[in-house]
Write a structure and sequence with these properties.
Layout lengths: L1 H5 L9 E3 L9 H9 L5 E3 L11 E4 L5 E5 L2 E5 L11 H12 L4 E4 L8 H9 L3 E5 L8 H9 L4 E3 L4 H14 L10 H12 L4 H4 L3 E7 L6 E5 L6 E4 L4 E3 H39 L3 H30 L1
Parallel strand pairs: 1-3, 2-3, 6-7, 7-8
Antiparallel strand pairs: 4-5, 9-10, 10-11, 11-12
Helix pairs in contact: 3-4, 3-7, 4-5, 9-10
Protein backbone atom coordinates (compact mmCIF):
# COMPACT_ATOMS: atom_id res chain seq x y z
CA UNK A 1 0.00 0.00 0.00
CA UNK A 2 2.85 2.42 0.76
CA UNK A 3 4.20 1.90 -2.76
CA UNK A 4 0.82 2.80 -4.27
CA UNK A 5 0.42 6.06 -2.35
CA UNK A 6 4.06 6.95 -3.07
CA UNK A 7 3.31 6.98 -6.80
CA UNK A 8 0.11 9.03 -6.63
CA UNK A 9 0.44 12.37 -8.50
CA UNK A 10 0.93 15.43 -6.30
CA UNK A 11 -2.45 16.88 -7.19
CA UNK A 12 -5.45 14.88 -8.31
CA UNK A 13 -9.09 15.90 -8.36
CA UNK A 14 -10.13 12.80 -6.44
CA UNK A 15 -10.22 11.25 -3.00
CA UNK A 16 -8.72 7.87 -2.18
CA UNK A 17 -10.39 5.31 0.09
CA UNK A 18 -8.51 2.36 1.54
CA UNK A 19 -9.86 -0.81 3.12
CA UNK A 20 -7.41 -3.31 4.58
CA UNK A 21 -8.46 -6.66 6.02
CA UNK A 22 -6.47 -6.53 9.22
CA UNK A 23 -6.94 -6.77 12.99
CA UNK A 24 -10.17 -5.33 14.39
CA UNK A 25 -8.38 -3.09 16.87
CA UNK A 26 -5.31 -0.96 17.31
CA UNK A 27 -4.05 -0.48 13.73
CA UNK A 28 -6.01 2.54 12.52
CA UNK A 29 -3.79 5.36 13.78
CA UNK A 30 -0.67 3.33 13.02
CA UNK A 31 -1.68 2.99 9.36
CA UNK A 32 -2.45 6.71 9.09
CA UNK A 33 0.97 7.70 10.43
CA UNK A 34 2.73 5.09 8.31
CA UNK A 35 1.10 6.12 5.04
CA UNK A 36 1.49 9.87 5.75
CA UNK A 37 5.26 9.45 5.48
CA UNK A 38 4.94 8.48 1.81
CA UNK A 39 2.49 11.04 0.42
CA UNK A 40 1.57 14.71 0.42
CA UNK A 41 -2.11 13.78 0.61
CA UNK A 42 -3.85 14.20 3.94
CA UNK A 43 -4.21 10.72 5.46
CA UNK A 44 -6.89 10.22 8.11
CA UNK A 45 -9.44 7.99 9.77
CA UNK A 46 -12.71 9.66 8.71
CA UNK A 47 -15.65 10.54 10.93
CA UNK A 48 -19.20 9.54 10.07
CA UNK A 49 -20.85 12.25 7.96
CA UNK A 50 -17.56 13.93 7.09
CA UNK A 51 -17.47 15.75 3.74
CA UNK A 52 -15.21 14.11 1.17
CA UNK A 53 -12.32 16.30 0.01
CA UNK A 54 -10.00 15.89 -2.95
CA UNK A 55 -6.36 14.94 -2.30
CA UNK A 56 -7.31 13.13 0.91
CA UNK A 57 -6.72 9.48 1.72
CA UNK A 58 -9.44 8.01 3.93
CA UNK A 59 -8.57 4.77 5.71
CA UNK A 60 -11.32 2.50 7.01
CA UNK A 61 -11.37 2.55 10.84
CA UNK A 62 -10.96 -0.83 12.57
CA UNK A 63 -14.16 -2.90 12.77
CA UNK A 64 -16.29 -0.38 10.83
CA UNK A 65 -17.53 -0.52 7.25
CA UNK A 66 -16.39 2.43 5.13
CA UNK A 67 -18.94 3.72 2.60
CA UNK A 68 -19.50 6.85 0.53
CA UNK A 69 -22.79 8.61 -0.20
CA UNK A 70 -23.79 12.11 -1.32
CA UNK A 71 -20.17 13.26 -1.16
CA UNK A 72 -19.95 12.22 2.49
CA UNK A 73 -18.29 9.41 4.42
CA UNK A 74 -20.58 6.84 5.99
CA UNK A 75 -19.27 4.53 8.71
CA UNK A 76 -21.38 1.39 8.99
CA UNK A 77 -21.86 -1.01 11.88
CA UNK A 78 -23.62 -3.64 9.79
CA UNK A 79 -22.75 -7.35 9.75
CA UNK A 80 -19.43 -8.58 8.39
CA UNK A 81 -19.14 -9.46 4.73
CA UNK A 82 -16.87 -12.38 3.79
CA UNK A 83 -16.02 -12.52 7.50
CA UNK A 84 -14.63 -8.97 7.44
CA UNK A 85 -15.65 -5.56 8.74
CA UNK A 86 -14.55 -3.28 7.13
CA UNK A 87 -15.23 -4.98 3.80
CA UNK A 88 -13.75 -4.11 0.42
CA UNK A 89 -16.95 -5.16 -1.36
CA UNK A 90 -19.09 -2.89 0.84
CA UNK A 91 -16.92 0.13 -0.05
CA UNK A 92 -16.92 -0.71 -3.76
CA UNK A 93 -20.70 -1.11 -3.93
CA UNK A 94 -21.28 2.21 -2.19
CA UNK A 95 -18.88 3.92 -4.62
CA UNK A 96 -20.71 2.34 -7.55
CA UNK A 97 -24.11 3.35 -6.15
CA UNK A 98 -23.01 6.95 -5.49
CA UNK A 99 -20.62 7.75 -8.34
CA UNK A 100 -21.45 5.24 -11.11
CA UNK A 101 -18.94 5.67 -13.97
CA UNK A 102 -16.85 8.13 -11.92
CA UNK A 103 -15.83 5.33 -9.52
CA UNK A 104 -12.45 3.66 -9.88
CA UNK A 105 -11.87 0.34 -8.12
CA UNK A 106 -8.40 -1.02 -7.35
CA UNK A 107 -7.73 -4.53 -6.04
CA UNK A 108 -4.30 -5.41 -4.72
CA UNK A 109 -2.71 -8.53 -3.24
CA UNK A 110 -4.82 -10.72 -0.97
CA UNK A 111 -6.33 -14.13 -0.30
CA UNK A 112 -9.50 -15.68 -1.79
CA UNK A 113 -11.89 -13.56 -3.87
CA UNK A 114 -12.70 -10.53 -1.69
CA UNK A 115 -13.30 -7.46 -3.83
CA UNK A 116 -14.55 -9.31 -6.90
CA UNK A 117 -18.25 -8.80 -6.24
CA UNK A 118 -17.76 -5.12 -5.40
CA UNK A 119 -15.63 -4.59 -8.49
CA UNK A 120 -18.37 -6.17 -10.59
CA UNK A 121 -20.78 -3.58 -9.14
CA UNK A 122 -18.39 -0.82 -10.24
CA UNK A 123 -18.05 -2.32 -13.72
CA UNK A 124 -21.83 -2.69 -14.12
CA UNK A 125 -22.24 0.96 -13.13
CA UNK A 126 -19.76 2.11 -15.77
CA UNK A 127 -16.71 2.60 -13.52
CA UNK A 128 -13.13 1.51 -14.13
CA UNK A 129 -11.43 -1.63 -12.88
CA UNK A 130 -7.73 -1.70 -11.98
CA UNK A 131 -5.88 -4.69 -10.54
CA UNK A 132 -2.33 -5.23 -9.42
CA UNK A 133 -0.49 -7.47 -11.85
CA UNK A 134 -0.93 -10.92 -10.25
CA UNK A 135 2.60 -11.86 -11.33
CA UNK A 136 4.06 -9.37 -8.84
CA UNK A 137 1.45 -9.79 -6.09
CA UNK A 138 2.61 -11.55 -2.94
CA UNK A 139 -0.83 -13.19 -2.67
CA UNK A 140 -2.37 -13.16 -6.17
CA UNK A 141 -5.79 -14.67 -5.28
CA UNK A 142 -7.74 -11.40 -5.19
CA UNK A 143 -6.48 -9.76 -8.40
CA UNK A 144 -6.67 -13.11 -10.20
CA UNK A 145 -10.27 -13.58 -9.10
CA UNK A 146 -11.21 -10.21 -10.58
CA UNK A 147 -9.28 -10.93 -13.77
CA UNK A 148 -10.99 -14.30 -14.22
CA UNK A 149 -14.48 -12.92 -13.51
CA UNK A 150 -14.69 -9.82 -15.72
CA UNK A 151 -12.93 -7.71 -18.31
CA UNK A 152 -10.26 -5.75 -16.44
CA UNK A 153 -9.55 -2.23 -17.68
CA UNK A 154 -5.99 -2.09 -16.36
CA UNK A 155 -3.61 -4.75 -15.01
CA UNK A 156 -0.51 -2.90 -13.87
CA UNK A 157 2.37 -3.14 -11.37
CA UNK A 158 2.25 -1.04 -8.21
CA UNK A 159 4.60 1.64 -9.53
CA UNK A 160 2.22 2.33 -12.43
CA UNK A 161 -0.94 2.66 -10.33
CA UNK A 162 -0.62 6.41 -9.82
CA UNK A 163 -0.14 7.20 -13.51
CA UNK A 164 -3.06 4.93 -14.41
CA UNK A 165 -5.43 6.62 -11.99
CA UNK A 166 -4.24 10.07 -13.12
CA UNK A 167 -4.91 9.27 -16.78
CA UNK A 168 -8.45 8.06 -15.99
CA UNK A 169 -9.25 11.20 -13.99
CA UNK A 170 -7.83 13.46 -16.71
CA UNK A 171 -9.98 11.65 -19.24
CA UNK A 172 -13.11 12.12 -17.13
CA UNK A 173 -12.45 15.79 -16.34
CA UNK A 174 -11.58 16.64 -19.96
CA UNK A 175 -15.04 15.60 -21.09
CA UNK A 176 -17.33 18.61 -21.31
CA UNK A 177 -20.25 16.68 -19.96
CA UNK A 178 -19.77 13.40 -18.17
CA UNK A 179 -22.67 11.05 -18.75
CA UNK A 180 -23.54 9.28 -15.50
CA UNK A 181 -24.55 5.66 -15.94
CA UNK A 182 -27.69 4.28 -14.38
CA UNK A 183 -26.79 2.24 -11.31
CA UNK A 184 -28.31 -1.28 -11.33
CA UNK A 185 -31.10 -1.60 -8.77
CA UNK A 186 -29.56 -4.55 -6.94
CA UNK A 187 -26.29 -2.65 -6.46
CA UNK A 188 -28.15 0.26 -4.86
CA UNK A 189 -30.18 -2.09 -2.65
CA UNK A 190 -27.14 -3.98 -1.35
CA UNK A 191 -25.34 -0.73 -0.63
CA UNK A 192 -28.39 0.41 1.32
CA UNK A 193 -28.38 -2.82 3.35
CA UNK A 194 -24.77 -2.20 4.39
CA UNK A 195 -25.31 1.51 5.03
CA UNK A 196 -28.52 1.38 7.06
CA UNK A 197 -28.43 -2.25 8.22
CA UNK A 198 -31.69 -2.43 6.24
CA UNK A 199 -32.53 -5.97 7.24
CA UNK A 200 -35.58 -8.10 6.53
CA UNK A 201 -36.91 -10.75 4.20
CA UNK A 202 -38.44 -8.15 1.90
CA UNK A 203 -34.99 -6.66 1.25
CA UNK A 204 -33.04 -9.83 0.49
CA UNK A 205 -35.84 -11.51 -1.47
CA UNK A 206 -35.59 -8.83 -4.15
CA UNK A 207 -31.93 -9.56 -4.90
CA UNK A 208 -31.62 -13.32 -4.41
CA UNK A 209 -33.22 -16.76 -4.35
CA UNK A 210 -33.54 -19.15 -1.41
CA UNK A 211 -30.39 -21.29 -1.20
CA UNK A 212 -31.52 -23.88 1.36
CA UNK A 213 -28.48 -23.10 3.54
CA UNK A 214 -28.19 -21.59 7.00
CA UNK A 215 -26.11 -18.54 7.89
CA UNK A 216 -23.18 -19.75 10.06
CA UNK A 217 -23.22 -16.47 12.01
CA UNK A 218 -26.88 -16.11 12.97
CA UNK A 219 -28.57 -19.32 11.83
CA UNK A 220 -30.98 -17.56 9.48
CA UNK A 221 -31.67 -18.68 5.94
CA UNK A 222 -29.31 -17.74 3.12
CA UNK A 223 -30.26 -16.37 -0.29
CA UNK A 224 -28.05 -16.82 -3.34
CA UNK A 225 -27.50 -13.37 -4.84
CA UNK A 226 -28.62 -12.95 -8.44
CA UNK A 227 -26.62 -11.33 -11.26
CA UNK A 228 -23.17 -11.59 -9.70
CA UNK A 229 -19.94 -12.92 -11.22
CA UNK A 230 -19.11 -14.93 -8.10
CA UNK A 231 -21.52 -17.23 -6.30
CA UNK A 232 -22.49 -15.28 -3.20
CA UNK A 233 -24.95 -15.61 -0.33
CA UNK A 234 -26.64 -13.17 2.04
CA UNK A 235 -28.96 -13.68 5.01
CA UNK A 236 -31.87 -11.45 6.04
CA UNK A 237 -29.76 -9.89 8.81
CA UNK A 238 -27.07 -8.86 6.33
CA UNK A 239 -24.25 -11.38 6.76
CA UNK A 240 -22.78 -12.05 3.32
CA UNK A 241 -20.29 -14.58 1.96
CA UNK A 242 -18.82 -15.69 -1.30
CA UNK A 243 -19.02 -19.45 -1.78
CA UNK A 244 -15.37 -19.92 -0.76
CA UNK A 245 -15.75 -17.74 2.32
CA UNK A 246 -18.91 -19.60 3.29
CA UNK A 247 -16.99 -22.89 3.26
CA UNK A 248 -14.35 -21.34 5.56
CA UNK A 249 -16.96 -19.88 7.90
CA UNK A 250 -18.81 -23.20 8.09
CA UNK A 251 -15.55 -24.91 8.99
CA UNK A 252 -14.91 -22.38 11.77
CA UNK A 253 -18.45 -22.83 13.11
CA UNK A 254 -18.18 -26.61 13.06
CA UNK A 255 -14.88 -26.49 14.93
CA UNK A 256 -16.33 -24.09 17.52
CA UNK A 257 -19.31 -26.39 18.04
CA UNK A 258 -17.04 -29.41 18.45
CA UNK A 259 -14.95 -27.63 21.10
CA UNK A 260 -18.15 -26.81 23.00
CA UNK A 261 -19.22 -30.45 22.70
CA UNK A 262 -15.82 -31.59 23.97
CA UNK A 263 -16.06 -29.29 26.98
CA UNK A 264 -19.56 -30.54 27.82
CA UNK A 265 -18.52 -34.18 27.45
CA UNK A 266 -15.49 -33.63 29.71
CA UNK A 267 -17.74 -32.06 32.35
CA UNK A 268 -20.23 -34.93 32.05
CA UNK A 269 -17.48 -37.55 32.36
CA UNK A 270 -16.11 -35.82 35.45
CA UNK A 271 -19.58 -35.64 37.02
CA UNK A 272 -20.36 -39.32 36.28
CA UNK A 273 -17.04 -40.38 37.77
CA UNK A 274 -17.64 -38.24 40.87
CA UNK A 275 -21.13 -39.71 41.39
CA UNK A 276 -19.73 -43.23 40.95
CA UNK A 277 -17.15 -42.63 43.66
CA UNK A 278 -19.76 -41.17 46.00
CA UNK A 279 -22.08 -44.15 45.48
CA UNK A 280 -19.24 -46.58 46.18
CA UNK A 281 -18.30 -44.72 49.36
CA UNK A 282 -21.91 -45.05 50.52
CA UNK A 283 -21.68 -48.84 50.09
CA UNK A 284 -23.69 -48.87 46.88
CA UNK A 285 -20.94 -50.54 44.87
CA UNK A 286 -23.24 -51.80 42.11
CA UNK A 287 -24.65 -48.30 41.46
CA UNK A 288 -21.15 -46.87 41.70
CA UNK A 289 -19.89 -49.31 39.06
CA UNK A 290 -22.72 -48.30 36.70
CA UNK A 291 -21.76 -44.62 36.88
CA UNK A 292 -18.04 -45.38 36.52
CA UNK A 293 -18.73 -47.54 33.47
CA UNK A 294 -20.72 -44.72 31.88
CA UNK A 295 -17.81 -42.38 32.58
CA UNK A 296 -15.37 -44.85 30.98
CA UNK A 297 -17.57 -45.22 27.88
CA UNK A 298 -17.82 -41.45 27.56
CA UNK A 299 -14.02 -41.19 27.79
CA UNK A 300 -13.79 -43.26 24.61
CA UNK A 301 -16.07 -40.83 22.77
CA UNK A 302 -14.03 -37.91 24.10
CA UNK A 303 -10.83 -39.39 22.68
CA UNK A 304 -12.48 -39.92 19.28
CA UNK A 305 -13.71 -36.32 19.27
CA UNK A 306 -10.20 -35.09 20.11
CA UNK A 307 -8.86 -37.07 17.17
CA UNK A 308 -11.38 -35.36 14.87
CA UNK A 309 -10.45 -31.90 16.17
CA UNK A 310 -6.71 -32.40 15.92
CA UNK A 311 -7.05 -33.94 12.45
CA UNK A 312 -9.03 -30.87 11.30
CA UNK A 313 -6.19 -28.63 12.54
CA UNK A 314 -3.75 -30.48 10.29
CA UNK A 315 -6.08 -30.07 7.30
Amino acid sequence: MTEVVTHLPDKMNAAVFIVLHLSKVGLGDFLVHRLQKYTSYKCKLPANGEKIEADHIYIAPPNQHLLVKDNEVVLGQGPAENRWRPSIDVLFRSAAASYANKAIGIVLTGFLNDGTSGMWAIKRSGGRCIIQDPKEAEYPDMPLSVQESMEVDYCVPLDKMGDTVKSIIEELTSQKQVQVNTVPGDVAKESEISEKVATGLDKVETIGTVAGLACPDCGGGLWEINDDVVKRYRCQIGHAYTEKDLVLKQSESIEAALWVALRMMEERRSLLSRIGTQETQKGLSRMGDIYKERATNLEQHIEKLKEVLYASKKD
